[in-house]
Amino acid sequence: MTRVEWVTISCDVCGSADHRLLFVKEGFRHVRCETCGMVFVNPRLAGHLDFQASSGTGSMGDDSLSPPQRQRLRKELSSMEPFRRLNRIMEVGAGRGWFLLEASRAGWETWAVEINSSALDYLRKIPVNNLVVEPAEEFHAPAASVDVVRMWDVIEHLESPRRAVAHIHRVLRPGGLLRLATTNFASLSRKVNGPEWVYLNGSDHIFLFEPDTIRKLLADAGFWDVKIRTRSFNLRRKLYHPEHEPALRWSLWRPFRKLIDETIRLTSFGHQMIVTAVKPE
Ligand SMILES: [Zn+2]
Q1: CATH no. for residue 182?
Q2: Which of 50, 48, 157 is nearest to 93 (CA)?
Q3: Ligand 1: distance of its center to the CA of 19 in Å?
Q4: Rounded distance from Cα 104 to ligand 1 centre (Å)
Q5: 255 in any annotated domain
Q6: For residues 281 and 274, what is the distance between their CA atoms, to the nearest angstrom?
Q7: How far is residue 7's CA from residue 44's CA, in Å, rounded to a whole number?
Q8: In a domain, 274, yes or no
Q9: Beta bridge partners of 23
Q10: DSSP collapsed to 3 states, 2-71
Q11: Ligand 1 mean position, distance from CA 204 (Å)
Q12: Domain range holding 170?
């Protein structure tokens, strides 16, 4: 049997070693930093990065995109147009490359940073101009060279969000845009589900941000104009024995889900945080 090794860490956001236990899920201790409030898995598995490279959920993404999904990516790209000066766009944790494929169709020079082996198989099949096979925390790319960096559902997987954001700040040109998404630990669905919240998966999701902590991380890295919005209410649960979960009556739930989704996007309690930040000129 393989021996499981653990690494105890300090808070990645503020460096403090003081934290208190919130709960244990599937053997993973989830703690909150006493100094800045960051929630993270501590200790974490020693082989976390290797796991992200070989499996994890790093390669997850849809096999194909529906027309509305493609439309959403195009809409997101058009919101980035005001930042296009050098004509370079980068995705950190590019997954299957759906976003970069659309970006390349829109005429951008594309950069992908990715370590997950199955994601790389996909990325090698699409017209990515520069494929950087290095972790987000230590990738190499010229300073001040890109207009926009996108990082979607990635930061919660990293060994050090702080180092990744510092690298992104370095590669962005002055005035460049970072746009990221991550789960919201302060969301209504997390409060309702407690430790059974579906996104609490200690082998994969080791940093659980909230609006206050992502704002601090980005401000400390030198970003300004940090804007946060949240969306969606996901009631799905994940238990240690998912086969024992009672099935939810989805057909009855669906109309309410739509209504709640529409309402929650007006608040800061949606389960997905979409964050933009700008590198000062
Ligand atoms: Zn902290």
Answers
A1: 3.40.50.150
A2: 157
A3: 8
A4: 38
A5: yes
A6: 22
A7: 5
A8: yes
A9: 30
A10: CCCCEECCCCCCCCCCCEEEEEEECCEEEEEECCCCCEEECCEECCHHHHHHHCCCCCCCCCCCCHHHHH
A11: 20
A12: 6-278
The per-residue b/e assignment along 112-135, b for 16 or more CB within 10 angstroms, e otherwise, is bbbbbeebbebbeebebeebbeeb
3-state secondary structure of 174: strand
Whole-prediction pTM value?
A: 0.90
What pLDDT tens digit does each residue of the chain (281 aa) get?
Answer: 567 799 999 999 999 999 999 999 999 999 999 999 999 999 999 988 888 888 765 555 667 888 988 999 999 999 999 999 999 999 999 999 999 999 999 999 999 999 999 899 999 999 899 999 999 999 999 999 999 999 999 999 999 999 999 999 999 999 999 999 999 999 988 998 899 888 898 888 999 999 999 999 999 999 999 999 998 776 665 544 444 455 555 556 667 777 777 777 777 888 889 999 999 99
* Total number of domains constituting the chain: 1
Q: Where are the alpha helices (DSSP H) in 96-187?
A: 98-105, 117-123, 161-171
> Cα of 33 to ligand 1 centre, how many Å?
5
Could you tell me the distance, in angstroms and rounded to a whole number, from the CA of residue 160 to the centre of ligand 1? 13
Ligand 1 centre and the CA of 166: distance in Å? 17
Contact present, 131 and 112 (Cβ < 8 Å): yes
CA of 148 from ligand 1 middle (Å) equals 28
* Residue 1 counted as domain residue: no
Output the six-digit token pair for 185: 């630990």
* Residue 169 Cα to ligand 1 middle (Å): 20
In order of 237, 238, 241, the CA distances from 245 in angstroms are 8, 8, 7
How close is the Cα of 203 to the center of ligand 1, in Å? 20
| CA proximity to 248, closest of 261, 257, 260, 240 | 257
* Residue 7: φ, ψ to 5°: -125, 125
